[in-house]
Amino acid sequence: MRRHLVEQLRKKGITDENVLSAIGTVPRHLFMDSGFESHAYQDKAFPIAAEQTISQPYTVAFQSQLLQVKQGQNVLEIGTGSGYQTAVLTLLGDHVYSIERQHQLYRYSMRQLPKLGYNAKKIVFGAGYKGLPEVAPFDRILVTAGASEVPKALLNQLAIGGRMVIPVGIETQEMTLIVRTSAKEFEKQKHGSFRFVPMLS
Ligand code: SAH
Fold it and tell me: What gap in Å lies between CA 51 and CA 142, rounded to an integer?
C-alpha cells in the first residue's frame, strides 16, 4: 500500500527521490488512531487527537520537497502533531527539532517516534511562534499549521541561505517558501493553495 501511495505522489508531481523514499519507508498507520489505520495509505488528511489532523501525504511530500533538507542541517518543525512528518524529516536530516503546543500530541509523538526508531534531537512542548532560540540558527524551518502571518522570531532564527516553508493565510493558505539571502533580506515564493488547521497563539 505504501508503494502504491508513492506511485500516486509521483503522478501528482513529487520528484524528489529522497522524499519519495522516506514516504515509502515510514509506517503512516502507526501514527494514526486505531479507527483510521486502514485508511493510512490513502492520500488524505485524517483526524488525530486534540482536534488536529495528520497532514495529507501529498502535503507532507510537497512541503518536504520544497524544504530540501540535507544531512547535517539544523531543522526545526513547528507542529509535531502525530509525528508522521517529523519521522519523514528524520530520514532526510539528522538534526531535527519539533515543537507541539497540544500536550496530548506532544506526549504521544515523544514516545512513538523513538519507539519506531525515528530519532529527533528533541520534541518540545511549547508555542512554536517563538521558535527555539537556544538552538538557532536553523538551516530549515517547516511550519505544518496555517499561520496568519510569518512569525518574526522564526525569520530571525533562519540561517543565512536557509529555507523556511510555511502555509500563510486564514481560511486557506498559500504555501510560501522563504529563502534568507542575507542578514536583512528574504526572498518569498508562492507555491499554491492548501488548507491547514490554524497555527494557535
Ligand atoms: N505534521 C503534523 C501536522 C499536524 S496539524 C502531522 O502530519 O501529523 C498541525 C499541528 O500544529 C497540530 O498538532 C497543532 O497542535 C500544532 N500547532 C498549532 N499551532 C501551534 C503552535 N503555535 N506551536 C506549535 N504547534 C502548533
Answer: 21
